[in-house]
């Protein structure tokens, strides 16, 4: 993916609402940084006068402007970092909010590593662009202009010769080096990725590779990738590092001071000192900014990934509320495709209240996708899901959450206490209510018991305890008892059946246990989609 330009990133609708609240802090930071640079230059000029006149007045003025420059620089840094922290927090909230509002199949394209990178690494990569780049650009514009003015004051037109090495090196460092770096950076990173992938393949298959010898299989791939990586690194050093080192040497005192001394050697000591001070002050901001341009490249790439994620389409939500009457729940002509593969077509079913509906079918026929659609977390290609004859996507998000409890397969119980996990779903439940629910599902654990010590079956019992406390009228469960034995399954099914019947709830449950089919009158079976076939309803 080609990174977006800085102007595109700054003006993108995804970033504009986040940047707007910190704009004032950034502007003040930029102005403070510029004035800090100017104050420091004035302090150097006062130092020149101090050497020339050796007056305590110039000593005080030198100290005053150095202190003023330090204070303004500190204010600039504090405002910039404060704005960056605010920006990072709001951006992370925007990313989390987006993850909660995009279709499930879209979110599934991002694995845990990709999501962690978006929320942490990519947001951190924007640190330099937000906290440092604006101020350094302002210093780059202001300080060299003032420095050049002082040099022309001392040397006249000869100042051009003093400025020439720094200008040439600055242009090279600010333009040519980043260009070469960006041109070769993608290939270098891809080579590094290939080497890591090859190493991982070898590590996973080390026992197999030992059978065939070290020159076979993944080990040979790793060797080739590592050789390619070393070649690319050597090429990068030749193209980027050596020229950059040459540019830095020009930016340093050697070349600039030599020319400054040759031109200004006949001046008095104070003037010579001023020429040396201001000749280096011209290029120092360029050197600082040049070191940061690599961060700009990585920041643009990170920002592009963030913008791509934030631009994903949201799930549709309406504003309608449900009337306070007995709920009905049905699907009508529901069709769904995933990546041009038809999952199910023209599906119709009425889910009865006060009963458990079991959802069966072979793996891959779309049972979990159907539950996601019923929960409003996936969008069908056609057809509707109706609650009380109101299409589910016409309801507000709050209304959907109020009436629907959806717990997907392998629900990730957070690494905390049992109490914390239960309060995620039932915030108002008391400890007594929580303990009663745990007792009903035969999970005899303290509320402070850490959930990472629970077995798979105990975690499923915890989820069922949450179901017993939920006020939602529609409950969607994806294989909620797959880790339980037959006796426990039958006991908990009887408990759920009585709970659903007593509270007139609608419970839809996926299962691969066909022995349960005769136990329930409401059964929806999904078969592999065929153009002439239909899904069976019982």
Topology:
Elements: H1 6-11, H2 16-19, H3 23-53, H4 56-99, H5 104-107, H6 112-125, H7 127-131, H8 133-155, H9 159-204, H10 206-212, H11 217-251, H12 253-264, H13 269-310, E1 329-338, E2 341-351, E3 355-360, H14 367-374, E4 382-387, E5 390-391, H15 397-403, E6 404-407, H16 418-425, H17 431-440, H18 456-469, E7 474-478, H19 486-503, E8 506-510, E9 522-525, E10 536-537
Parallel strand pairs: 3-8, 3-9, 6-7, 7-8
Antiparallel strand pairs: 1-2, 1-4, 4-5, 9-10
Descriptive report:
The protein is of the alpha/beta class and 538 residues long. The chain has 2 domains: 6-310, Up-down Bundle (ABC transporter transmembrane region fold), CATH 1.20.1560; 329-537, Rossmann fold (3-Layer(aba) Sandwich). Helix content is 63%, strand content 10%. It is built from 19 helices and 10 strands. The chain has helices at residues 6-11, 16-19, 23-53, 56-99, 104-107, 112-125, 127-131, 133-155, 159-204, 206-212, 217-251, 253-264, 269-310, 367-374, 397-403, 418-425, 431-440, 456-469, 486-503; strands spanning 329-338, 341-351, 355-360, 382-387, 390-391, 404-407, 474-478, 506-510, 522-525, 536-537. Helix 4 (56-99) packs antiparallel against helix 6 (112-125), helix 8 (133-155) runs antiparallel to helix 9 (159-204) and helix 17 (431-440) packs across helix 18 (456-469).
């Amino acid at each position: 993916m080609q990174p977006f330009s800085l102007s595109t990133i700054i003006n993108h609708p995804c970033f504009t609402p986040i940047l707007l609240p910190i704009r004032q802090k950034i502007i003040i930071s930029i102005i403070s940084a510029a004035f800090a640079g100017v104050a420091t230059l004035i302090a150097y000029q006062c130092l020149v006068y101090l050497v020339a006149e050796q007056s305590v007045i110039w000593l005080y003025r030198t100290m005053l402007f150095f202190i003023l420059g330090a204070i303004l620089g500190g204010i600039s840094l504090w405002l910039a970092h404060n704005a960056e922290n605010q920006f990072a927090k709001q951006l992370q909230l925007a990313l989390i909010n987006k993850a909660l509002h995009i279709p499930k199949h879209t979110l599934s394209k991002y694995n845990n590593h990709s999501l962690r990178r978006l929320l942490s690494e990519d947001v951190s990569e924007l640190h330099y662009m937000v906290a440092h780049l604006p101020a350094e650009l302002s210093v780059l514009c202001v300080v060299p202009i003032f420095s050049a003015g002082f040099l022309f004051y001392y040397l006249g037109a000869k100042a051009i010769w003093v400025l020439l090495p720094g200008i040439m090196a600055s242009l090279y460092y600010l333009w040519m080096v980043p260009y070469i770096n960006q041109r070769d950076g993608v290939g270098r990173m891809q080579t590094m990725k290939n080497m890591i992938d090859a190493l991982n393949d070898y590590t996973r298959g080390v026992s197999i590779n030992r059978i065939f010898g070290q020159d076979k299989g993944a080990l040979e791939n790793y060797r080739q990738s590592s050789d390619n990586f070393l070649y690319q690194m050597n090429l990068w050093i030749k193209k980027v590092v050596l020229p950059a080192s040459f540019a830095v040497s020009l930016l340093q005192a050697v070349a600039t001071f030599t020319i400054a001394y040759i031109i200004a050697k006949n001046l008095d000591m104070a003037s010579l000192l001023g020429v040396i001070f201001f000749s280096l002050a011209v290029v120092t901001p360029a050197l600082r900014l040049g070191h940061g341009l690599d961060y700009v490249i990585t920041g643009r790439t990170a920002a592009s990934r963030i913008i791509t994620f934030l631009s994903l389409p949201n799930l549709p939500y309406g504003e309608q509320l449900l009337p306070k009457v007995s709920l009905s729940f049905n699907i009508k002509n529901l069709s769904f495709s995933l990546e041009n593969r038809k999952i199910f077509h023209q599906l119709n079913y009425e889910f009865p209240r006060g009963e458990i509906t079991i959802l069966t079918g072979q793996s891959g026929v779309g049972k979990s996708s159907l539950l996601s659609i019923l929960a409003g977390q996936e969008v069908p290609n056609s057809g509707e899901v109706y609650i009380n004859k109101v299409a589910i996507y016409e309801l507000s998000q709050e209304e959907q959450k109020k009436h629907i409890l959806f717990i997907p397969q392998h629900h990730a119980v957070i690494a905390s206490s049992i109490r914390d996990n239960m309060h995620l779903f039932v915030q108002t439940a008391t400890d007594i209510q929580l303990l009663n629910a745990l007792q009903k599902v035969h999970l005899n654990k303290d509320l402070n018991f850490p959930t990472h010590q629970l077995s798979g079956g105990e975690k499923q019992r915890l989820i069922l305890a949450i179901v017993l406390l939920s006020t939602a009228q529609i409950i969607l469960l994806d294989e909620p008892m797959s880790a339980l034995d037959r006796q426990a399954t039958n006991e908990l099914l009887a408990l759920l059946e009585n709970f659903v019947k007593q509270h007139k709830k609608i419970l839809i449950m996926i299962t691969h246990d066909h022995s349960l089919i005769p136990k329930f009158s409401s059964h929806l079976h999904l078969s592999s989609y065929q153009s002439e076939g239909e899904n069976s309803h019982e």
